[in-house]
Structure formats: C-alpha cells, structure tokens
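Researcher: Next sequence.
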Amino acid sequence: AAALSYLIQNNRKPIVVTGAQKPINLEITDARMNLRDSLRFVMDDRAYGVNIVFGGKVIAGTRAKKERSKSYNAFSSINYPDIAVIQEKRIIFYIEDYFRLTEQVRFYHRMNERVLLLKIIPGMDGRILNTLADEYDAVIIESFGVGGLPAYGRHSFLEAVDNWCSRGKKVIMATQVAHEGSDMTVYEVGNRIKRECGILESYDMTLEAVVAKAMWMLGDGNTEDIGPKEVFYRRVNYDIIFEPGREG
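Model: Next structure:
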C-alpha cells in the first residue's frame, strides 16, 4: 500500500488493499467482511487514492502498520487519523480535506531496491555501515527514541554516516518507536550527526512509508529539477505532517 501510494499519485479512482486473518472458506472469518467493506468503499463517490480497508477501518496506504499478527483489528493508522470507518454499511469519513484533490494523476514505474534498513541495538559498531556501503544506495537507520545514535568507540556512527554522505549516498534517520515520530534536535548525539552530515529524517512517517519513499525517490521520484530533501519531504497521500524549515 505504501509503495502504490508513491507509484500512483493524485489518483481520483480508489485503490484498495485488503486481506484477512483467516481464510475466506472458513465459517468464522474476517475475509468476507473485509471484502464487502472494500467493495462498499470503492463504490463511494468520495473514495480515491490508495488505502487499506481492514477491520472496519479505512487507512491511508502510507499510514498503515500491522501491529497484531492474529487479531482481526490487525492494522492501525500511525500518527494520523483513520480516513474513515465502516459501520453497519455506512462509511463515516474523518478527514475533511480528503476530497480536495486538485493535481493531475501521476504514474511512476521504477523503484530502487538498493535501500538498506538497519535497526540499531546496544553495542553496535558504526563500522557495520562501512561494510555495506558498496552494496546499497541508501540506508534507513532505526535509531533509539527520538533519533539518537551511539557515540562510543573509535569508529563511531558519525564517521560511518559521514562516509556514506561523502559518497553521495542517502542516509535517512528513523525511529524504532511506532508512535509520535522522530526529532533529532532533542539530544546532542542526534543533533550533531544531522547538522554535520545533512541526513534526512523520517519525522512522523511510518517506517513502511520511509522505505517505500526512499525506493521511489532513488528510482523515479527525483526526476524534477529539485533536490532530494524537497522530494523526500513533499507530502504524498498523507505520509508526513511537516513544517517548512524544520529539517534544519
């Protein structure tokens, strides 16, 4: 759903991704309800864009995260309200500006798969990034809390990240915490590495959206005469709530 959000932008026609926790042929299953809700939603004149319909909720494709592996309410909308809910055959929309689509539809065709996702753990050495630099064009670092990085050892993460950036590769800082997003200005270990290396930051974006957006940006997204920051921080399908100039 996140990838489709970047490949098909400003689409007036609705695209729904759905599924089920139990097979549709079982007597007790959520598959039939999710399928009916999906059909009901796409038939609504107000529906458009890429969304997940699941468990009675309509979630923007860039905001969905699967938080439960077995329960019927498997997906949640992270750092953004549900687009709508479906109850008793009624669709109740929550987002008032959801219907204000003015730009023309745009299609993209390429995604760069040379994007690495790295989860930081205590004791990890920054040298691990140096061993991977030849194989990837971008790295997304899942950091601690609001965006801190380890600052110990001879080969610090600051040096490793600086090496990536000096080679023209993209470094994006995200957080391991699902809710409330990142803010690298809070602690010195994050503030310094962002200030000196000029990396990108996920802010309130979901990790799923960050990965898909990085692949799109490096594949087809940076085709206009603008820089990577402008491309990455441009809002697509409600993926980011961003204040201009906040990136430093």
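Model: The two ends are 30 Å apart (CA to CA). The chain has a mean pLDDT of 88.
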